[in-house]
Write the structure tokens for this entry.
Amino acid sequence: KYPGIIKILTADDVTGNNGFGIYPHIKDQPVLAKDHVRFRGEAVVALVGERENVESVSEEDLGLTWEPLEAIRGCDAALSGKLEPVQSEIVDNILAEGFLKKNDVEKAFAESFAVAEGVWTTSAVEHGYLEPEAGYATKIGQRLEIFVCTQSPYMDQTEVAQFLGIEPGQVRIIPSAVGGGFGGKLDISVQPLVALAAWILGRPVRSIYTRPESMVSTTKRHPVQMSARAGCSKDGKLTAYEYHGDFNTGAYASWGPTVADRVPVHCSGPYFVPNVLSQSRALLTNESPSGAFRGFGTPQAAIANDALLDVLAEKIGMD
């Protein structure tokens, strides 16, 4: 029916668990979505063939029909309770939380000579590596070899095995020299699609993302809405620090729980602060998943920290 198209794969073709994820207990992102699509850029079908033939097939040709749903965009919408949750089992859209408390923050602020506070919002950041996601898979007997641009070959092996329904020993990952990663290639990208196609067809299959395909479908640095305040003594010693951050982790978990857990520990920076209260949340939205990107949320928190130190220094006249 479609010249040059060898196979059209859907969620029904996934031979194991149609879900993958960083954590053993969270496999929330499907290899191919079925019935419900949670963000623009999510894979629904995989067309196997030459690129020019694949690109000639339209959604209308495939008979895809869409029912638009109101999307949750941003942290405020995620917490509003006015829209259907991104994932039905997480009704409040709070995927994970982090918390740290050290001594009495309120007392320390009351006794501080100077206090500074503020609110900040950051946007998603694309990794922008020179080499987009790429790889190929070959079935050899009852084993699968995948040559792929990845930062996490052992995690890839585990993930591929579980969504194909085979043993990890049947999967060999051969990592290429990564043409830039910065954390972005800790997540899976082309691996599920080339693995599934090669396993079913019994022939080599490759995939190379174009730049637009890479940008729309892969993880980003977490956008965050955060507030913080810091106190110091007259001679410039930090006395207290308080931080609250809501991190937009997108439609699926990726590394969101790690970000939520790590930020409270690091948000006060490389300084001795005797009194700290820090809280963070990873929130689900209908946006591209946010994942690992050098620092796991701490660079965003550092914006607030550095800004407050500037204000405190100005208040006490310290250069």
